[in-house]
Amino acid sequence: MRRSADKTVRILGSHGVPANYGGFETAAENVAKFLVGRGWRVVVYCQSEGTGPIVNDTWQGIERVTIPIDTDGWLGTSRFDFVSIKHAMRFRDINLTLGYNTGVFNIWQRLRGVPNVINMDGIEWSRARWGFVKQAILYVNERFSALYGDHLIADHPLIEKYLWSRAPKRKVSTITYGAHEIVDPSAEIVRNFGLEPGGYVTIIARPIPENNILELVRAFSAKPRGVKLAVLGNFKRDEDPYHGEVLDAASEEVVFLGAIFEPDNVQALRYFARAYLHGHTVGGTNPSLVEALAAGNPVIAHDNGYNRWVAADAALYFASESDIDAHLTTILSNTQTATTMSSAATERFEAEFTWERIGGQYEALLSRYLKHQS
Q1: Quick check: 178 pLDDT over 60?
Q2: Considering Cα of 48, then 52, then 54, then 58, what sign does the dihedral take?
Q3: How far is CA 72 from CA 66, 69, 87, in A?
Q4: DSSP 3-state assignment of 127?
Q5: 85, 119, 192, 246: least buried by Cβ within 10 Å?
Q6: Residue 338, burial from CB neighbour count under 10 angstroms (0-12, 13-18, 19+)
């Protein structure tokens, strides 16, 4: 399809494409591909390590502006965001900004009259793992983004409701995170990890207390299950006492596979699992939960409003370790219940979380600002 110079969007705030870092990068890649297929010109700002000039190239129809940064961590990300915005302000194109970590810089778009749609990424400042100083910085930047952004995207209805306290309702919309249907994965992949298709359940989450990894592992390990629990993630006993607690709580049926990033491997591990255990307590629409629905996994999820809206009838919800124990017994022993929940997972995914649906929602929102381009 021929691209129109009048339909241009510049995507800022992610590490870039192809996605190999996290949720925002995956969103940037999938939304960009959708828009390119719809005739848009899409420019994605990408961060690389080192020094040197800014590099322009094209990847799968997406224009990339790659900016080398030789500073690590948050300072490096802040510098990348600043340089990206400085470059983008040379043009009048719509900006789609992913995240508010450096929301103070968004005043630049406002002063230049450049439309800026911002994905607000949940209530990120409230996460205890950041510590007080970073929480305070994130809180302030959230306020700046809410003030300066032309439109704010929430990834969950509860996040949209929260953002009403930061901006007028007319300025906020919900567009969720997405996933792809898993088609014909290789069973040999899971066997290479020492697992058998249908012979395990999974946990795929960052190993931090707010994700209830310890409670899930302890509840699974309370009795023999006849299946394995495959836990993905880096657990470093010597560096984090919490990791040691999780490792010590595990029975012989628990296997720790480490951090796995290759999409084919993760998709196969999801697809052939009997169930998915989801302990997340904060945030909006969690990518791992959406990907479990795409795999047709019955879910055992922490009982909160975020998870209940996403998983709906595809999950059994827990508030205690005894709940987890009971739900595991139900899913592993009752084939009809597991089958019904699996069908519900697929239906929920197809109704709300396909990238085609989400790409269309982004296009409709961005199209409101096309008249601003010149």
Answers
A1: yes
A2: negative
A3: 16, 8, 21
A4: coil
A5: 192
A6: middle
The number of C-alpha atoms within 13 Å of 349 and in the hemisphere containing its C-beta is 28
**What is the structure's pLDDT at 19?**
84
Place of tokens 């919309």: 173
Q: Is the pLDDT of residue 1 over 70?
A: no
Which two tokens mark 326?
A: 């009971």
Q: Which pLDDT does position 5 carry in this prediction? A: 56
Distances (CA, A) of 246 to 150, 207, 208, 215, 268: 44, 9, 10, 8, 25
Q: Which of 78, 53, 55, 80 is nearest to 69 (CA)?
A: 80
The structure tokens listed for 32 are: 């960009």
Q: What pairs with residue 179 in β-bridges?
A: 354
Q: Whole-angstrom Cα distance, residue 135 to residue 155?
A: 20
Q: What is the DSSP string of 137-194?
A: HHHHHHHHHHHH-SEEEESSHHHHHHHTTTS-GGGEEE----B----S--HHHHHHTT
Residue type, 166: R
Two structure tokens written together for 284: 């909006």
Collapsing DSSP to helix, strand or coil, 34 comes out as helix
DSSP string, 37-82: HTTEEEEEEEEEES-S--EEEEETTEEEEEEEE---HHHHHHHHHH
Contact predicate 87/65, CB 8 Å: yes
How confident is residue 21, by pLDDT bands cut at 50, 70 and 90? Answer: low
- The owner of tokens 């017994």 is 329
pLDDT over threshold 70, residue 148? yes
For residue 320, what are its two tokens?
């205690």
Least confident residue range of 16-30, 78-92, 182-196: 16-30
pLDDT at 236: 95
Quick one: pLDDT at residue 131?
79
Q: Which residues contact 283 (CB under 8 A, 6 or more apart)?
A: 122, 123, 156, 306
- Mean predicted lDDT score pLDDT of the chain: 94
- pTM, 2 dp: 0.93
Name residues whose C-beta falls within 8 Å of residue 295's C-beta, 6 or more positions apart in sequence: 182, 267, 270, 271, 273, 276, 345
